[in-house]
Specification:
The chain is an alpha+beta fold. The chain folds into three domains: about 90 residues, conserved putative lor/sdh protein from methanococcus maripaludis s2 fold (Beta Barrel), CATH 2.40.420.20; about 90 residues, Elongation Factor Tu (Ef-tu), domain 3 (Beta Barrel); about 140 residues, RNA polymerase II/Efflux pump adaptor protein, barrel-sandwich hybrid domain (OB fold (Dihydrolipoamide Acetyltransferase, E2P)), CATH 2.40.50.100. It is about 30% helix and about 40% strand. Strands 3, 12, 13, 14, 15, 16, 17, 21 and 22 form a nine-stranded antiparallel sheet that branches. Strand 21 and strand 22 form a beta hairpin. Helix 2 runs antiparallel to helix 3. The two termini are about 80 Å apart. The model has no long low-confidence stretch (mean pLDDT about 85).
Length: about 375
């Protein structure tokens, strides 16, 4: 009986040892499979100058918008453009019927030929009369009269030739050309219509000289003035423009109060009248500011925070932010220059969380 009791105790203690060993193995496995460090990229807090700017959105208007009008009365043969078409200076826009002017020119040429024939005959008369005067057959008065008639015919010939030039000039006006590069805004008449002098045919908006109108809030009105640098971009072109404020106009309505900033844009490829324009007016510059990438700053219950990385541990720091510029944000309080902060992956961190740095060179630079 005692032997059986001893075997039972041995078996019990062996089971306990095996159970304890299994528990320790599970604990080690649990630690091995615990929370993994969060992979992040980091950046050092930079000390850099920053421009103080104000952003606005406005529109562009063309200052050169010629309306092509008929300079002679005639019927439209063809208008070669439609609204929205781009045109180049000197491009043919429309043709008018020149038939009436061609007939007038032929009539004027016939008149020139008639006067030239009369003048030729009168020259012979003057010569004959002069010969008779020399022979004392007629008086000098007859010669003087024939010379005066010759002069009258010469003046009539000059007038007839001038009329031909006038008619040819009118004929040339039956072909209407674009006076400048631009875009057709409106086609007012079409093929077959009759136009009188001064009737509009086509309106062209030129993009050589544009004016930007950008409203800014009244709160920055005291900081705006003519001559301030202005950076402009537009969706129709990849070419940014730097210009200056030309003029300021206060706009007060029942719903808002704004300051209209006016600036000129001269002959920039791709810029078009009627397009929107994004503006950034430079109000000043701060020589020194602590800047971090925008994604470093995350929102937590405590407010805006960044995670400073020290020894692969994230330390939450509540910060105060300032200006934003080109993907960077100013930190006015809460960090120091050269502190290393998490960038990509910052949104997944908590205070005292372990991290793994993907770009270690940034942490040491």
């Amino acid at each position: 009986m005692q032997r059986i009791f001893s075997l039972t105790l041995v078996t019990f203690f062996a089971s306990m040892l095996i159970a304890c060993g299994a528990s320790e193995d599970k604990a080690k496995e649990a630690n091995k499979n615990g929370p993994k460090p969060t992979l992040v990229t980091v950046s050092a807090v930079q000390d850099a100058p920053v421009e103080i700017t104000e952003e606005g959105i406005g529109s562009l208007e063309g200052l050169v918008d010629p309306t092509l009008k008929a300079e002679v009365p005639a019927r439209i043969i063809k208008v070669f453009v439609s609204p929205g078409d781009s045109v180049k200076q000197g491009q043919l826009i429309a043709t008018l019927d020149p038939t009436a002017f061609n007939l007038q020119e032929r009539e004027a040429q016939a008149e020139v030929a008639r006067i030239e024939a009369l003048l030729n005959n009168q020259s012979k008369t003057v010569a004959r009369n002069q010969a008779l005067v020399d022979k004392k057959f007629i008086s000098q008065n007859a010669v003087d009269t024939s010379v005066a008639d010759q002069r009258v015919l010469k003046e009539q010939l000059v007038a007839a030739k001038a009329r031909i030039n006038t008619i040819r000039n009118s004929t040339g006006k039956t072909r209407i050309f674009a006076p400048t590069d631009g875009v057709v805004e409106n086609k007012i008449v079409d093929t077959g219509e009759y136009v009188n002098v001064g009737d509009p045919i086509v309106q062209i908006i030129s993009n050589k000289l544009l004016r930007a109108y950008i409203p800014f809030p009244e709160r920055v009105g005291t900081q705006l003035k003519a001559g301030l640098k202005l950076r402009l971009t537009t969706p129709t072109s990849d070419t940014p423009v730097e210009t200056v404020i030309r003029e300021l106009k206060p706009l007060i309505t029942a719903s808002n109060r704004t300051i209209m900033v006016i600036a000129d844009v001269k002959n920039v490829a791709g810029w078009q009248a009627g397009a929107s324009v994004n503006a950034s007016v430079i109000l000043g510059e701060r020589a020194s500011a602590m800047m971090v990438p925008e994604q470093s700053v995350v929102l937590r219950p405590a407010g805006q925070v960044v995670y400073m990385i020290k020894d692969n541990i994230a330390h939450q720091a509540i910060v105060t932010t300032g200006l934003r510029k080109s993907g960077l944000i100013e930190i006015t309080d809460g960090v120091n220059v050269n502190d290393v902060v998490a960038v990509d992956g910052a949104g997944f961190l908590t205070d005292k969380a372990q991290v793994k740095i993907a770009n270690k060179t940034a942490a040491t630079s």
